[in-house]
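#lab-general

N.A. 3:47 PM
ok so I finally got the sequence cleaned up, no stray characters, all 183 residues accounted for. can someone with queue access submit it? mine expired

B.Y. 3:52 PM
send it over

N.A. 3:53 PM
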Amino acid sequence: MVCLLQVDLLAHRWRYPTVTIHGIEGAFSDPGTKTVIPAKVTAKFSIRQVPDMDPAMVKKQVTDYLHSVFAKRKSLNKLKVTMVIGAKPWLADTQHPLYEAGKIAIKRVFDMDADLIREGGTIPIARTFQDVLGKSIIMMPIGGFDDGMHSQNEKMSRYNYIEGTKLFISYLNEVSQIQKTSV
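B.Y. 4:20 PM
back already:
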């Protein structure tokens, strides 16, 4: 049972679309009471897309849904939905020689096999790089689960910095051994 729950949890983290609320501007958030209703409130959220999702279609579906829910409230207020970034999802070819080089480098530096997971939702440029350059893309994050990525208290441990540097050196050494025709 526990194993199935872990698989389900990881599948939701790595494989399925997610919605993340990043903040609400205009609403009173300090301690204490506040009786003034703000004239304008802005909510910011993102949707991590997965392969076979189209950003334009997602925007339409989300906008239509939010407008339908808002219409049911019969409010005199206005709702405006905008999409700042709409990037196509990216999925790597983990059989590509660059990934084989990465696996070898990880084994050499950390003495463990690489975990090939589907995470990287905040890097929308990956698919664009791959499409425009016509080259395979690899991501080898060196941060820890507790680094607080993109937060006010974002950090990287000294260990991860040093070992990550070793990883990139080892990786580049492995890439140099790949035949030019396969990259």
